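Something for you to look into today, if you have time. What I am after is a single protein written out in full by you. I want to see for myself how the chain folds. Could you add the entry underneath, on a fresh line?
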Amino acid sequence: MYTSGVEGIQKEFNISSKLIVLLGLTTNLFGLALGSVVLSSLSEIYGRRPVYLVSVLLFGLLTLPVALANNIEAVLISRFFGGFFGGTMIASAPGSVTDVTDDQYRALALSCWSLGTMNGPVLGPIIGGFVYQYLGWRWLNWLVLICSGISLCLMFLVKETYSPALLRQKTKKRQKLTGDRRWWCRFDHEETGLQVLKTNLIRPLRTGTAVAVGLEPLIRKIIALHPHDPITNRPAPEAAVIAVCIGSILIPIGEFWFSWTAQPSVHWILPILAGIPFGLGNGLVFIYATNYMAGSYTVYAASALAGNSIVRYGLAGVLPLAGEKMYSTLGANWAGTMLALIEVILIPIPFIFYKYGHHVRLRSPMIVKRDMDSS
């Protein structure tokens, strides 16, 4: 919703360049990227629930300085730290979904979870536009604060789901009840916070929406055709990459379609319809790439997805700063075409993972460690 109030912030603080105000979006996304790594590490040490409670509380409190800001510096700094603590809901939430679902229903569960993460950026500017028009840009932050308060209340109803944390809690309870310190579990001597953080930072280097949800049963049947693991009798994690391959083709189709129909001589409905293949492709890539990483890392899913968040939100923070200049220089047709060509270049990546992902996973120290712990 922040972008809905950019004009109001620029006018109130007498800022000459709109780009400076857009830095509020960049700092927030950089905070999300960093927070995803740090907080997901903490969730693998202390459990999901305490990290959620503290993060949601601090995220809500950090909207106050933005709502009450008297200068743009306060807005930029507060939004960075707000994004930092908001990052836990992006990185750790898929880990929570993985904690409570098995391979058969994980894709469906992640599809339901992704409704919020994918539709938030769509609905946010629409809701924010009305709020800004009638109440002003500061009320965009008051609305976020209200929603954060509601989320915090609901979070108290959520139980711990992370199995290592549950085992540690059970061990401590037995020690307290019996007075016998010999009670232990295999997670008592896990890595320290700094070690987990280091692992999360280097792991990406080691491993290399509504429509999508509606098609989930069909996609699940396609995935089920993938050869099954002889031990578990279930499709390997690479089966989820089939949907990513399909999505990677649909995204540039939608981008090309939009780029060359977004002009006055073409009926307005055509560029709008381009959102169907683009949105479907985006949904398939996001949902099933998340499912692939969650299925590969299982108990370490939160930190694996945090590594993914670094790249995703890092790029998302930088590109808006260049986007306006790119579109004004190249025009909607060629700027969109350039993005579509980049998307075409990236198409082979999921196909490579579909064919060779199994060999990549066998070389991952974290997956080897997970398999040893579960054996």
Remarks:
- The longest helix spans residues 301-345.
